[in-house]
Amino acid sequence: MERMKQHNAEDIASPKRTKELLQRHGLVLKKSLGQNFLVDPNILHKIVSAAELDAGKGVLEIGPGIGALTQQLAKLAGRVVAIEIDQRLLPLLQETLEGYSHASVIHGDVLKVELRPLFEEYFASVSGVSVVANLPYYITTPIIMKLLEEKLPLDNIVVMIQKEVADRMSAKPGGKDYGSLSIAVQYYCEPEIVTIVPHTVFVPQPNVDSAVIKLKVRKQPPVQLEDEAFFFEVVQASFVQRRKTIYNNLASRFFTKETKAQLEPILQQAGIEPSRRGETLSIQEYAELSRALAEALARS
Ligand SMILES: C[S@@+](CC[C@H](N)C(=O)[O-])C[C@H]1O[C@@H](n2cnc3c(N)ncnc32)[C@H](O)[C@@H]1O
């Protein structure tokens, strides 16, 4: 409660305030850094409430921009850390986050920052951490994969991303959106699209449709794997050529012309018809398949 009374920066999420701030600081936004700033309080509210924050929780924000989302996060969470690559925005963030002493801005490239030590330094005393961000779209997938593969202690990830990527992350087997990204994300998380976002809520407006997605991080993966890296290798290989059968994709990756006859019984052992395509297999089926394939390759 104290914290809420302390801050003296004004909320900035409106086209007028955003443009005025940028102008006053002489800033021209960089398309190359994915700088499309959110100017709609309703969307900010939807993002923040999906993260289920409270004063005991910590938040990592990626790309605070001029701080519109950061302000709302700081009103609810006990600790906010925001990583921003564009040094020009730092003085502006100092102004918009004035009085939010529990919010820190780190200048850096999120793909290069070591997150584990950062978590130890900033989030040692919180009861849970969320990642909440309006992501720079040119690196959406590498950011999400970095967060998941590093197995950071996260409750959830609530991010604004391209709608097309949100559809791929949340796709179920059987459709054109389902692929290695769906499987990787769903191995670590339970995805849920929170809302679809029109491009009019950004300054400047992006060319693509957007969506807010919530990735609830699983305590346990949905399948038990002996060799996680090999499971993901099998998944990748199965989608190399989407129109090819699982048999053909796996034969090209793991066998030679002479040895590929071994593959059919392996697929059958895993209960998978060789004529199926990679996009029809569930995570459980990929787990069975990678197990059977690893055993067979170890024997040969
Ligand atoms: C879509 S804008 C979001 C800005 C703000 N959070 C908002 O919602 O209005 C993306 C932000 O990410 C920053 N950014 C781009 N690449 C980055 C990187 N590799 N590491 C950290 N921040 C990055 C940009 O400078 C920009 O501020």
From TrEMBL:
Pfam families, sorted: RrnaAD (PF00398)
Reaction(s) the record says it catalyses: adenosine(1518)/adenosine(1519) in 16S rRNA + 4 S-adenosyl-L-methionine = N(6)-dimethyladenosine(1518)/N(6)-dimethyladenosine(1519) in 16S rRNA + 4 S-adenosyl-L-homocysteine + 4 H(+)
EC number(s) given by UniProt: 2.1.1.182
Keyword entries, A-Z: Cytoplasm, Methyltransferase, RNA-binding, rRNA processing, S-adenosyl-L-methionine, Transferase
Main location: cytoplasm
Annotated binding of S-adenosyl-L-methionine, by residue: 36, 38, 63, 84, 109, 134
Residue ranges constituting the Ribosomal RNA adenine methylase transferase N-terminal domain according to the UniProt record: 43-219
MF-aspect GO terms: 16S rRNA (adenine(1518)-N(6)/adenine(1519)-N(6))-dimethyltransferase activity; RNA binding
GO CC, one annotated term: cytosol
InterPro entries (alphabetical): KsgA/Erm, rRNA_Ade_diMease-like_C, rRNA_Ade_Mease_Trfase_CS, rRNA_Ade_methylase_Trfase_N, rRNA_adenine_dimethylase, SAM-dependent_MTases_sf
Cell compartments where the protein resides: Cytoplasm
Function, in words: Specifically dimethylates two adjacent adenosines (A1518 and A1519) in the loop of a conserved hairpin near the 3'-end of 16S rRNA in the 30S particle. May play a critical role in biogenesis of 30S subunits.
HAMAP family xrefs: 16SrRNA_methyltr_A
Family: Belongs to the class I-like SAM-binding methyltransferase superfamily. rRNA adenine N(6)-methyltransferase family. RsmA subfamily.
Protein known as: Ribosomal RNA small subunit methyltransferase A
Organism: Paenibacillus rigui
Gene of this entry: rsmA
